[in-house]
């Protein structure tokens, strides 16, 4: 549901897979029979669900979008490639340390230059003649 790829997952009898947080949200209700939020098939939490660890190679090969997709990042690739991409992604939401405004990483330099540029002072040229 959330798009995260955790090491531990919960698999329903309908084969949909959930991270621990999403699974907790699904079973939060105290009914004896619950429904998968994806296909609405019913399941019994204690009988149908078992925590499992996904194999590292399998997880690294899953296809994902960058977490910053909503900010305009177009990265789409494997989890392994995402690990390399993520640190250099230009679509992180940052907070300007000078004014606390939200700014995309790709816009930070231009933001600082335009919003926080110190005005240039006009200084009269020095006279080379002796003072009178």
TrEMBL record:
Q: Which InterPro entries match?
A: Znf_RING/FYVE/PHD
Q: Which N-terminal residues, if any, form the signal peptide?
A: none
Tell me the protein's name. Answer: Secreted protein, putative
């Amino acid at each position: 549901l959330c798009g995260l790829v955790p090491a531990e997952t919960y698999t329903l009898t309908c084969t949909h897979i959930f991270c621990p947080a999403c699974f907790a949200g699904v079973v939060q209700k105290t009914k004896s029979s619950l429904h998968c939020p994806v296909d609405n098939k019913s399941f019994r939490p204690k009988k149908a669900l078992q925590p499992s660890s996904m194999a590292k190679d399998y997880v690294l090969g899953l296809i994902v979008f960058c977490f910053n997709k909503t900010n305009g990042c177009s990265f789409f690739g494997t989890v392994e490639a995402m690990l390399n991409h993520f640190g250099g992604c230009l679509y992180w939401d940052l907070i300007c340390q000078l004014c606390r405004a939200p700014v995309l990483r790709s816009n930070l330099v231009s933001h600082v230059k335009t919003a926080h540029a110190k005005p240039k002072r006009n200084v009269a040229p020095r006279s080379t003649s002796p003072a009178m």
